[in-house]
Design a protein that fits this description.
With 332 residues, this protein is of the alpha/beta class. It folds into two domains: 156 residues, Medium-chain alcohol dehydrogenases, catalytic domain (Quinone Oxidoreductase, Chain A, domain 1); 145 residues, Quinone Oxidoreductase, Chain A, domain 1. The protein contains eleven helices and 15 strands. The strands form three sheets. Strands 3, 4, 5, 6, 7, 14 and 15 form a seven-stranded mixed β-sheet that branches. The two termini are 20 Å apart.
Length: 332
Amino acid sequence: MRAAVYRRYGSPEAVVAIEEVAAPVPGDGEVLIRIHAAAVNPLDSHFIAGRPAIARLAFGLFRPRRTRPGADAAGIVVAAGAGVTRFRPGDAVFGACPGAFAELGCAPERALAAKPDELSFEQAAALPVAGLTALQGLRDHGRLAPGQSVLITGAAGGIGSFAVQIAKARGAEVTAVCSARSLDFVRALGADRAIDREKEDFTRSGARWDLIFDLVQSRGFGACRRVLAADGILVAGGVLSVGPPRLGPMLRWAGRLLFGLLRSRFGRRKLRTFVAKLNADDLAELAGLVASGKVTPAIDRRYRLEQAGAAIRYVQQGRARGKVIIAIAGED
């Protein structure tokens, strides 16, 4: 089978190649999927870049341990390993699949959900990482309730485009912060107000929000608490930077975050951070939101498998509005 592979660190277009590799075999609790579509995430470029250098202690010191990019996929079950009870060959599924930029992939049954007929494979592939982060950030950590106000930074990105729509579906009033080129885009997603991040500092606007969902982490807790309601919550999540992360900015961000977490323990306004958790129930909830028309995955660009390096590089540049898809098994 064909798959995207990288065997050294560097620029995605320089190090990612399409190779013939052995087809995977599903183990206990796994299913083998013929992948129709996969989605690119910023983490793909971070793994490939191997930066900051200290991260190579986990990624592989001299060469990457993980050589197959991709995590989000949608496709058709080809075979099921022992112990699989929810899926059988022929079922359409989506979810997390390691090495998803390939014609075939193995995924744990618990990391998948059934794809509704209303969703295309491309739409379904766009959901897992970005959709789960948006859903869990707003619902579980931000405790967003109907009638509340929420401000979302990075609102035009993969996570942000879902967050705007999910917040509206939950009955919130949404303010979206993004670049000037994306103002109309976030309004079309349902944002009640759009702020040009280069012309207006929302932390000095005088407005108040019940929840700030900070997906680019451009402001510290001290600045954000000025515009939080009395019992407001700042949820910090999403990507840390555009392009390969650098050690200096990451250390400054970590220090600011730790200081903010400590400070928030002694007041009514709270700071929360999280890592999205993969589970089939939340994948099914996301699929239901799309099937009902309340959420529509925003797809910026589509690439072929042969263009995987270029797709990763485009996401790395930080200009994607919504998700970037790699089409693998043809059109839906």
